[in-house]
Design brief:
The protein has 17 helices and eight strands. The chain is of the alpha/beta class and 438 residues long. It is globular.
């Protein structure tokens, strides 16, 4: 089994001469010396590479939307903010092989003829910041960045930008606002960033895992990339599992393995004394899947057919000794805190949802609260908010109400959380609960 993304991960990471010794920066040499920018884009499009940040959109198609005949600067941004709860795959790549990311960024920037590139890094990734900063300096010294790269006339400047820890920056236009020094709120679309992005110029934002794959596609071709996968979605994927399993972690595996293989063969199954209730397959903003879904393929189509999303491919497991109501309340508390407050349904709806869940968790819930929660999953669903934050927040809630409704009803019927004894104390915010039942 080939593991192109992770085979050269080391801690500390390879220095540039070591990276070159294993074939590093050959994709840059090949692209800027022997390929036209449009050829690079066509190759990535042919590979059927889909973005690994969560949306699963065709990477080559995204690049092809950049107008190549527009004068002035263009930008490339690596989204390394990785704020999705339960997700840690990009951190592994950033800390373990930063030159692989930089090489992918240089090739991608060349394909769209960007003149400036940014790594937008999560504030908490201190070790990654050190690794990326050092790699950028080494790449400048070796002539892979700066003016007249490898004597080809192509020039690219690259910067490390550390964010301030806002989940909202996972939305690419909010990220661009933040990069411009503004409040991280999403922009109206169209125009899309490929046409009018950073500082109003054409901009591509790609995920770290996505960009790290680019050198391998340029070196080995589209057919090789497709051959790595078990399904129509090409390549390998970094999958992760967290929760009460025997071996939580992350693994690079063929795209399209089954959830059962990931859970049992790699994560080692559930810990002794704990049973499986469900899983968020792609981070916190995806719908729960349950036992009957164990044999689905973990690719974009397979997870969608089961009613959820592949997302980041990093699973969060719910065990049978963790309260589903408390589990979902914790997620909605996070999403309510991370709402940018720009649109009313998200700003008002998420805190209301969180308070309803907290009241149920405390044993103060009412039967009609379940109907209210269901209505929120519609009011805050796709098409009713300015961006995807609130719809994403509704995914674990709507699926928990579907698969774990008995738990919600038991909380209400018994006026307590059956998973906790004694009942937890109420936060000050919970006293507002009944004021919202208007």
């Amino acid at each position: 089994m080939e593991r192109p993304l992770t085979q050269h991960i080391t801690f500390p990471p390879l220095e540039i001469r070591q990276y070159e010794a294993i074939g590093g920066y050959q994709a840059v040499r090949k692209a800027v010396r022997h390929m036209q920018p449009q050829e690079v884009t066509a190759l990535v499009k042919e590979s059927n590479m889909k973005g690994r940040g969560g949306a699963g959109f065709s990477t080559g198609m995204k690049w092809s939307f950049v107008p190549m005949d527009v004068p002035g600067p263009k930008y490339l941004v690596a989204n390394a903010d990785e704020m999705e709860p339960g997700t840690f795959k990009d951190r592994w790549l950033l800390e373990g092989n930063p030159h692989q990311l930089l090489e992918g960024m240089i090739v991608a920037a060349y394909a769209i003829q960007a003149t400036e590139a940014f790594v937008f890094l999560r504030w908490a990734y201190k070790d990654a910041a050190i690794a990326v900063r050092k790699a950028i300096a080494e790449a400048y010294d070796a002539g892979y960045l700066g003016k007249d790269i490898l004597g080809t006339g192509y020039s690219l400047e690259m910067h490390l930008h550390t964010g301030v820890g806002r989940y909202m920056c996972g939305e690419e236009t909010a990220l661009l606002n933040s990069l411009e020094g503004k409040r991280a709120t999403p922009r109206a679309k169209p125009p899309f960033p490929q046409v009018s992005g950073l500082f109003g110029k054409p901009t591509i934002v790609n995920n770290v895992e996505t960009l790290s794959f680019i050198p391998h596609i340029v070196n080995k071709g589209a057919d090789w990339f497709k051959s790595l996968s078990r399904t129509a979605d090409g390549g390998t994927k970094i999958y992760g599992v967290s929760g009460r399993v025997n071996k939580p972690g992350a693994w690079e595996l063929p795209m399209g393995i089954t959830m059962r293989e990931l859970m049992e063969d790699y994560a080692g199954g559930m810990k002794n004394g704990f049973g499986f209730r469900g899983v968020l397959p792609g981070g916190a903003s995806t719908d729960f899947l349950i036992e009957k879904h164990m044999d689905i393929t973990l690719d974009f189509a397979g997870v969608a057919a089961a009613g959820s999303r592949l997302g980041t491919g990093t699973m969060v497991v719910l065990d049978d000794q963790t309260c589903p109501v408390g589990f979902v309340h914790n997620l909605e508390h996070f999403f309510a805190q991370e709402s940018c407050g720009f649109c009313t349904p998200c700003r008002e709806g998420l805190p209301w949802t969180e308070k309803l869940l907290w009241a149920i968790e405390q044993g103060r819930g009412r039967n009609e609260d379940l109907e209210l929660l269901l209505r929120h999953t519609e009011w805050l669903g796709p098409g009713n908010t300015f961006c995807a934050l609130a719809p994403g927040a509704m995914e674990p809630l709507q699926s928990a109400l579907k698969y774990f409704r008995d738990d919600f009803e038991r909380h209400i019927r018994e006026h307590r959380c059956p998973y906790h004894d004694p009942v937890p104390a109420a936060p000050a915010s919970a006293h507002l609960h009944h004021t919202h039942h208007l």
